[in-house]
Amino acid sequence: MFSRRFFLKNSTIAMLGVGSVPTWLSRAVYAQDAPGQRKKIMIAIFQRGAVDGLNVVVPHGEPAYYASRPTIAIPRPDGSEQTAIDLDGHFGLHPALRSLKPLWEKQQLAIAEAVGSPDPTRSHFDAQDYMESGTPGLKATNDGWLNRALQPEKNPAPLRAISLTPDLPRSLRGKNEALAIASIADFQVKDPQVAATFENMYGTTPDQVLNGTGRETFDAIKIVQSIQKRQYTPANGAKYPNGRLGQSLQQIARLIKADVGLEVAFTDVGGWDTHVNEVGGQPHVGQLANLLRDFGDSLAAFSQDMGDRMADITLVTMSEFGRTVKENGNRGTDHGHANVMFVLGGNVRGGKVYGDWPGLEKEQLYEGRDLNVTTDFRAVLSEVVTKQMGNREIRSVFPGFSANRYPGILSA
């Protein structure tokens, strides 16, 4: 027969929708009255499905790009809205990413090219697992790189690591506390009468620890809900898209501005597996263009909303692998190898494409079909972990990996 203690504890867990009562709940009640402290913040965005990096950051200076993609290549820059947006004479942005160009010009946005995993898998599941665990080729790793990057603290902030996803992502699983919230609006007990009943039950239990846990659980809910209930207007005229990524970034912005002690935030966005109809009637429109417009506008809105707070923030994007250099017979592309990463923030040495470009001629391709990996994705992430998160134990974050040198994307 279940004890009253078991019933009280697990009923609250069920109402919260989390697997266990994290210890941050026992501290969250004090967060509202604590003085705000600006922390360095790292945000990771995973583009699930393998985005076509060659049509995101267009190598318009490569004749082989156009020879390999006769119907889906983004036209060379000519200043019109249908062509690539030139960055440096060789690379250009997809025209749907026009909102990111000002960030490039302000040197807040950098691009890492020919980045990827040393493992050759073209399986979405395996490649995502390897990238999120930070151990390519090893399936036995239990925790994620982003969780390992969090340095142990005696009194970590109540909302130190958050994922704006329904479930905790692979990269945030591990011994350090992290919380997945699909939406801060959902972190609540929706029925006031039920909440009052359980709070009263906790108040009458003779177990002081359980009593405290119960009260603090409800207080923590109230704190998160107080953020949600406040009228929020993005600063500096920023307008977030209504898609999942835009709304996730807006919620991350709210948590940052509320000074809840956030250090790490994660979110993801899918739909990038463009085997069929990657482009519409013209290369600059269609499925990929729609995804990229939402993606670029979301990042731009977040940066605009955060304003001077971007000095404390580094945002990095990643995808499990790239796509084939040649288009397929369905106006799409298939699973490839190397890809592109964006790095955005106040300490980013932006306005530059980083990495060794391997070229797109057949003899330069991986297995004669894919962009070659010249920069391990862990080198980019290691630099962010070291310079932004202050964790220099890179071999603990990425076991078996040692970066001979960082790409140099961050200034400090």
Protein described:
With 412 residues, the chain is an alpha/beta fold. It has one domain (36-182, 231-397): Alkaline Phosphatase, subunit A, CATH 3.40.720. It is 32% helix and 12% strand. The protein contains 13 helices and twelve strands. The protein has helices at residues 4-16, 25-28, 53-56, 63-68, 101-105, 124-133, 145-149, 192-204, 208-229, 244-257, 287-306, 377-387, 394-397; strands spanning 41-47, 57-58, 85-86, 92-93, 109-116, 161-163, 179-180, 264-269, 313-318, 339-345, 353-354, 375-376. Strands 1, 5, 6, 7, 8, 9, 10, 11 and 12 form a nine-stranded mixed sheet that branches. It has a three-stranded antiparallel sheet with strand order 2-4-3. A hairpin with a 5-residue loop joins strand 3 (85-86) and strand 4 (92-93). The termini are far apart.
Keywords:
Alkaline Phosphatase, subunit A, alpha/beta, globular, 412 residues, 13 helices, 9-stranded mixed sheet
